[in-house]
Specification:
The complex is a heterodimer of chains A (226) and B (300).
Chain A lengths: L1 E9 L5 E10 L4 E5 L6 H8 L7 E6 L2 E2 L8 H7 E5 L10 H10 L5 H14 L15 H13 L5 E5 L7 H16 L3 E5 L3 H7 L2 E6 L2 E6 L7
Parallel strand pairs in A: 3-8, 3-9, 6-7, 7-8
Antiparallel strand pairs in A: 1-2, 1-4, 4-5, 9-10
Helix pairs in contact in A: 3-4, 3-5, 4-5, 5-6
Chain B lengths: L1 H16 L1 H38 L1 E6 L5 H13 L3 E7 L1 H14 L16 E6 L5 H8 L8 E5 L2 H43 L1 H9 L4 H41 L8 H35 L3
Antiparallel strand pairs in B: 1-3, 1-4, 2-3
Helix pairs in contact in B: 1-8, 2-6, 2-8, 2-9, 6-9, 8-9
Classes of the chains: A alpha/beta (226), B alpha+beta (300).
């Protein structure tokens, strides 16, 4: 599903954010991205959704070289790859339902499909009873669940979570992790960048460890630290 | 159809979600449009005034008292053949005197003493179709001097030259000023809309993240810009309509010698011009602003 071939990313100021990264993540896999701040986790995610281009090497998502996509094809990639952020990125003036439906409306859907799909993901994240609330009326965990619902509503094949529990307390973090695990079990490829050692150690999933832009460890049932 | 529905709804909501910003943008547009319309009206009024002045331009031939009527009529016929001439009027000695008496009656400080004989000559008054031909025609008519019919050729080259200069300056200067006005209006409006777009950069970022096409991201903003333009045009035209009556009567009072009338056709043209300008500037400004924001969001 995701393949990085000899990928390096060097920013104009000289910083080498990624160096010679080779990676393959299969459809339906669950992979943690770990490493200190500045190790290159966010850069790798930005390359996957083509918010940035690699300096050298190839980034392949769903058999397509991301760098070769025409500008008009980028929206297709973004529908294939859903993203969840540490700061949720919800629109404060829209209700829970509207925030989720927004992702369908702006990708050209309407009517019955928007209602049905919004209800489906609301039920999946367990927020049907909060549908008419505004983000400011929700807890942090609930807001992150809305963000996950929005990322899932277009039925992406990959879900990328960039520090999804970074702003949440331990109990709420576990709820989010359980939700993401369930999404992965339903067939979505899950890539999660995290600093949360407890969660990584408890789940014993694949761990890709980045250090100064290079992959220093890639284990199938890894721990947060070697 | 569904896409159109979404875009229209989003544009309408976008306008009303931040009413302070929208009203500020609308008023900015209105003021620019008022300036624009004011300039057009002034320009058109001056053009009409120049046109009216131009139509008054004439050459006068003073005739010898002893000239034979047949010679005068032959000369008149010859002048009328010139394509630059609109009309030739024969004014008799008696008519000239009547005109002078008539003028004297209306001016308190002017009296015509009872004269034994009429000292005023008969004349041919030549109205020109085009003021630019005055000099040429005057030169050719001066050949008639000393042939027993024409005693003097009266033209007024300085007035004609000045009028022609005014016309040229107005048409060249008018285009230059109009271009500058357009630039200033565009600049102010683009900046105003840019602030509005910038205020919603989060929304644009999320739209791009969930895979909205540029079309979907930009058209609500472009339509919102056109909405701002339309409301701005309505406000500007309403102010113009309210102001037109007093301004027109003031102008007619000031320039009563000039039969300046702009006409209903011009009013319609002006309204359509202002609205079209507003739509182009509003939509174009929004398009420009949202495109720069889109480029920021997707550097790749």
């Amino acid at each position: 599903m995701i393949r990085l071939e000899d990928v390096s990313k060097r920013y104009p100021n000289g910083t080498a954010a990624l160096q010679d990264v080779d990676l393959a993540i299969d459809q339906g896999d669950f992979a943690f991205l770990v490493g200190a701040s500045g190790a290159g986790k966010s850069t790798l995610i930005r390359l996957l959704i083509r918010e940035d281009l690699p300096t050298t090497g190839r980034v392949v998502v769903d058999d397509k070289d991301v760098a070769q996509l025409r500008h008009s094809q980028i929206p297709q990639l973004r529908r294939l790859v859903g993203v969840v952020f540490q700061d949720f990125k919800l629109l404060p003036t829209k209700t829970v339902t509207e925030n989720i439906a927004f992702a369908l409306l702006v990708t050209g859907h309407g009517g019955q499909i928007v209602r049905e799909e919004t209800e489906r993901v609301l039920a999946l994240v367990g927020l049907t009873h909060r549908s008419t609330h505004f983000p400011r009326e929700l807890s942090g965990g609930e807001q992150q669940r809305v963000a996950i619902a929005r990322a899932l509503v277009n039925r992406p094949r990959v879900l990328i979570a960039d520090e999804p529990t970074g702003n949440l307390d331990p109990v709420t973090s576990w709820e989010i992790i359980k939700l993401l695990t369930r999404v992965q079990e339903l067939g979505t490829t899950l890539v999660m960048a995290t600093h949360n050692a407890e969660i990584v150690n408890a789940l014993r999933r694949r761990v890709i460890h980045l250090d100064h832009g290079a992959v220093v460890r890639d284990e199938r049932e890894g721990l947060y630290a070697a | 159809m569904r896409r159109l529905g979404y875009v229209l709804t989003a544009a309408w909501q976008g306008f009303w979600r931040n009413p302070v910003m929208s009203v500020a943008a609308t008023l900015t547009v209105s003021l620019m449009l008022l300036l624009f319309a004011f300039f057009i009206v002034t320009d058109r009024g001056l053009q009409a005034a120049v046109g009216a002045l131009e139509s008054k331009v004439e050459l006068v031939l003073y005739l010898d008292d002893a000239a034979k009527p047949s010679d005068i009529l032959a000369l008149k016929a010859r002048i009328e053949k010139d394509p630059a001439v609109a009309r030739v009027d024969y004014v008799t000695k008696q008519q000239a005197l009547d005109r002078l008496r008539d003028l004297a009656q209306r001016k308190e400080d002017f009296t015509v003493a009872d004269l034994g004989t009429n000292p005023l000559p008969a004349s041919l008054e030549i109205k020109l179709a085009n003021a630019q031909d005055t000099a040429r025609l005057a030169a050719s008519l001066k050949d008639e001097l000393g042939r027993g019919v024409v005693t003097d050729v009266i033209d007024n080259p300085t007035v004609v030259e000045k009028l022609l200069t005014i016309t040229r300056v107005l048409s060249v200067g008018g285009i230059a000023v109009l271009a500058m006005m357009l630039f200033v209006a565009l600049f102010v409006i683009v900046n105003t809309i840019r602030i509005a777009v910038h205020a919603r950069r989060d929304e644009i970022e999320i739209m791009q993240l969930v895979g909205a096409t540029d079309w979907f991201v930009s058209w609500p903003f472009i339509l919102e810009g056109m909405l701002v333009g339309t409301f701005g045009a309505i406000v500007a035209l309403a102010i113009l309509a309210l102001a037109s009556q007093p301004v027109t009567s003031a102008m007619v009072g000031f320039l009563d010698i000039l039969p300046v009338s702009l006409g209903a056709n011009f009013v319609l043209q002006l309204a359509l011009g202002v609205l079209g300008f507003a739509l182009i500037v509003g939509g174009g400004g929004a398009s420009f602003s949202v495109r720069s924001q889109l480029a920021k969001g997707a550097r790749a």
